[in-house]
Amino acid sequence: MPGLITMDDLTNEEIISILDDAERLLPVAKGETYLPLLQGKILGNLFFEPSTRTRMSFETAMKRLGGDVVNLGDVKTSSVVKGETLFDTIQMVDGYTDIIAMRHPRQGAAQYACDSARVPILNGGDGAGHHPTQTMLDLFTIRRAHGRLDGLNVVLAGDLRYGRTVHSLSHALVRFGCNVTFASPESLRMPVEIVNDLKAHGAEVYETTNLLEQINAADVIYMTRIQKERFPDEDEYAKVAGAYKLHARDLDGAKENMIIMHPLPRVDEIHPSVDLTRHASYFEQAFNGVVARMSLMCWLLGIKVPETIEGGASE
Amino acid sequence: MSQEGSMRRVTAIKNGTVIDHVPAGKALSVLKMLGVDGNMSNPVSLVMNVPSQKMGGKDIIKVEDRELTQHELDRLALVAPDASVAIIRAYTVAEKMEINLTEEVVNVARCTFSNCITTNPMEPLPHRLIVTKREPLELRCRYCGKFQEIDKLVDNLL
User: Fold this and answer.
1) Residues of B with CB below 8 A from A111's CB?
2) Residues of A in contact with B117 (CB under 8 A)
3) Is some CB atom of chain B closer than 8 A to the CB atom of A91?
4) Neighbour-count burial for A42-66, b at 16+ CB within 10 Å, e otherwise
5) Which CATH number fits domain B3-97: 3.40.50.150, 3.20.20.300, 3.30.70.140, 1.10.10.10?
6) B104-156, what's its fold?
7) pLDDT per residue over A254-281, tens digit each?
8) Residues paired with A101 in a beta bridge
9) Which of A108, A115, A116 is the closest to B116 by Cβ?
10) Model pTM score
């Protein structure tokens, strides 16, 4: 069954088409227009590890489109603790639902579920692997800010080793001809297989440990949280963490339309002073998760989004 | 030493399997992949690092009284994809077998990435490793996408 497991499951044309649909669905996502395109459909939310934004935005997206949602609930009280395999869980849930959104701590779990299921699977994060629905909302946010996806200078910063959002996003950016810079501590560099993949696509990848030097040339700065627990001790963490904290005063030389994004939750890598600048886009980005996921569910379920929606953009 | 001379280092076998053109130094991995160890009773002869016009250097293995199956040959594709295999019966070559590296290596070895979903032995779907490059051999797990370390795969045989 087709699903969205990595960004390789979508062509560039499909990405653009899904983003166009999302654009028209904005008033529905905001609750300004009711459009029950997915009435009678049920989404199975299978989150085997914690999620706030992804789970809630999937749920909101389905409900805004007139559908319903069933949740796995707390893994601690499900059959998973009794040793149920992912295969069996999927066999059960796809009998109950029309589409499944899933997050799992094991890498490859989404592809495994996709191979096991009869309904489409949306990968909401598999270990340190991929998070393509996040990438779609990220692309949506970038395109709304800059009016295009191609040729932008995008800096991905922070924990690039374990941060699955930047893994999926970097693939997509390169496919649209963006110049990608990776700014991270040595120990949290982008995994070599991803860098090799990007180079195989013809991308020139620039890696640095200095984020602040990249600000002025950037069209997009995509921050991620540097996770203390990834470091052998607090001293090692303290040595690098400060170099990946943005304050409003760091942005004086930034391009006027440069946007700062973050998949959230943030800890201290973006100072609250940045929230008040024109560059802060992370809360809008979080909202865009609803509309991007609405569009993706319509696409996977074969439901055509009308060309004109009351109060929305038309083609 | 001539190739003919090196071949004579190992006596002809009456019945069994000869695996020739094993990459130099890989014979021990091949034995491991075939499950050949001190616990089996079949005589095994092995020469390593003999000169080869085709390969520069090669290893040769002779396992007496055992004929390899196609499934066992699939395993060899991971470390010796160009090896030639001959089944010997009554001192003559009764059958030549080819090792064909398929586009996907299924249920031969478990993914080497410790956090892959397939590390749960109860999960029932097949173990699938995609061949992304043949020279040198590169494999990726279908599920987690991680590149496989060939030496570690030998320890993960199913």
Assistant:
1) 142-145
2) 86, 104, 106-109, 112, 126
3) no
4) bbbbbbbeebebbbebbbbbbbbbe
5) 3.30.70.140
6) SH3 type barrels. (2.30.30)
7) 999 999 999 998 888 999 999 999 999 9
8) A45, A122
9) A108
10) 0.86
